[in-house]
Structure formats: structure tokens, C-alpha cells
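Model: You mentioned two targets. I'll fold them one after the other.
Researcher: Yes, keep them separate.
Model: Target one:
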Amino acid sequence: MKKICYVGLIGRPNVGKSTLLNNILNFDLSIVTNLAQTTRDNIKGIYNDVDSQIIFIDTPGIHKAEFLLSEKLNEKSYQTIKDVDVVLFLTPANEKLGTGDKYIINKIKELTNNKLLGIITKIDLIKEKELLDEKASQLKELGLETILGTGQGYQQTYYDLIDEIKKHAYEDELIYDEDQLSDVSLRFIAKEIIRETAINNLYQEIPHSIAISIEEFKENEGKNLPYHIEATIFVKNESQKGIVIGKNGNKIKTISMNARKRMTEIFEHRVNLFLKVKVDDNWVNNEQKIKRAGY
């Protein structure tokens, strides 16, 4: 028996949800880039210590839906709010509390009566403590009783957050094995690594209208053979396809090389990765194609 708690990470895009989860787990589970709307899946990260198991759910950033895909991503976040025991509302210290933040807080209150904690992220990016105090006061005015700050180089803040969450945990049987960091498969991690690498290499040239499909994944367990992975990068038009491939194929080679290196580090196993690029116009507005992409 341990103290169990399900925790949802909720907020606008690019407020530090994935970074928070990765720091708590001390493992790069979720995609982290400088771009908004990077997370597309509800990703479970499992924290274990001597007396507790806390299941964190990293969600897509809630935003104004411009495509059917955007609506689907928002729905995932709303469902998480309903399902978890504790909701962490994240907002960055270096940005003003805006109408989007207030909308999300009101939406959380509409969907659940469970505990709501305010988390001010990226506190390492501000020097004036008064700005932090001002933001905490604004959150309290909106009904958030408990406010915590987190940031790079402030490791104690993550311990404080865990202690606060434990106050709302309950005794139960373990949900996951104690050495398990997530419920996602290696196949899923491979897909996310490819997408993250593509975004990081293309981010000034192409929007988030790419999707990754893993066509083949062979682990070759027990053999001294590399994992064999074949994947397709889907884009919206021929122009985007040309950008992803690059001059003389240099861009896709870079994406493949960097993704393969990252997979090798995480899987602790050699990887052979084969990528191709296909055009699939307007997939972000097509229900069937969105499902095929795993969303």
C-alpha cells in the first residue's frame, strides 16, 4: 500500500508543463521546445518514493481551436481535469496573467471540485520578487488557495510540490510497478522523438502541421541486433515536403541522425531508423486522418 494521487498538468501552450514533468521524473519523457502546442497526447509520468506513487498527466496546452485537431487536443485536457484528484494550473512567471489563463481557471472550476493548485513556472527567468508576489496575489483572487513556484535551478521547489500533492493522496494498492516511469510504449517514445527532432530542426520554416506514423518497430530483444524503425513524416503540401527533405536531402538526414542518436541514448540500444516524407493535405481537419495519426 502507498499513497496514490493522480495529478493533471493544465495550462496554456508553452507554460512549462512538460519541463515540470521531466524535472520531477529526472527523465525527458515529454517533448520540450520553445514552440507552443508541442504536446499532443496525454502523457503519464509516474513518480515513486518510499511512501507514495503520484501519476502526473501532461496535457496539450488549452488554446483557441482553429482546426479539428485543436478541438481534439482541448478535449483531452478537459477530460483529464475531470479524471484526476489534483489539478495543477501552470502559468509562467515572466508573462502576465491573461484572459486565456482566466478562461482556463474558470473552465477547471466548471469541470471539477477537486483540489486546484497554482504553479508559477519559470521563476528563474525573473529577478524582481515583487512580480512573483503580484502574480501569486492575482491567482489567489481567482480562487487558488495554494500557490507554488518552480524553475530551473530551484530543485527544492519540486520537492515542495511533491509534499503538497501528498496532502491530497489516498492509501491504495500500487497502480504501476515502482520502477516504471510511464505507461507509454517504446513505439510511442520513438514517434515523439522524431516529432520533437523535426520541430527543433524546422521550427522557423514549418508550422506544427506535421504528424508522425511509425510503420514498423522491431525491438529484436535478446539479439545483438539494432532496433529497426520505419516512420513516415506527414505534411500538408508539397512545399512543406520540400522543406522537410531539404536541399539534397540534407534536412531529413539531419532529423534522422539526431533522432536516431536520441533513441539510442534512451533505449540503451542501437537503432536503425528509416524516415520518409508524404503529403497528406488538410489532415488536421479530417477525423479519420487525425485518428490515424494517434490523436
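Model: Target two:
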Amino acid sequence: MITRRLLAAFVLALAIAAGATTLTPAAPASAAQYNWGAIAYDWNGRTAWAVNYASEPAARYAVKARCGSQCGYFTFYNSCGAVAYTSDRRHSAWARGYSTRGGAERAALSRLSGPKYVAAYACTSR
């Protein structure tokens, strides 16, 4: 009798285990979506921006192609970025990772003193 009970318990456990695997929720279909952006700038005041690229290298390549090899650049994803200059363009500052255009612009401007202006901003889709 003990053997029948053990066999019945084993079969029941096996059935539950098989049923449990079919009731397990599926994993998410895809990983998190990243929309990459970049802003390039140079000391002559030239700027270029690119948004909603699938990868950081693609966004970087796009702005370098538009601005030129002499331009500096920065990248960001699922957010906004901005670059600012002093009026004489002797100094520049940039900000990235902000949820709004205004936040990115204020952050870039706050890193400079004296007369200054925002030269470019860009925001990706989120």
C-alpha cells in the first residue's frame, strides 16, 4: 500500500509540475527600447543634432557626418541634451539626460558665466 501511495504522489507531483510549466508567464518579448541622440558642436558655432537612432554609434556617426570631423560631440538616450556657448564662443558647455528641453538648456547654461546662449538642443522619443 505504501508503494501505491508513493506512486500516486509521484504521479500527482509530476502532473502538477507539468501543468505549472505551461502556466508560467512568458518572458517579455523584447528588451527595453533605447532611442539614441547626439549633438555635435565646434568653436565656430556650428552645430548638428540627430535623434531616435537605434544605437549610440549610429547617432554619433550621423552628427559627425553633418558637423565635420573637427566637431566635438556627446550622446544621450531617451532624454534631451543641449549645448551652450558664451557670447564670444570662448567657452562651451553641454548637458544630457534631462527629461525636458528646458531642463537640458538650463543645465547647459548654468555651467557658463557671463553672457551666454543655447546653440542647439535635441530630444529623443521615449
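Researcher: Noted. Anything on target two?
Model: The two ends are 64 Å apart (CA to CA).
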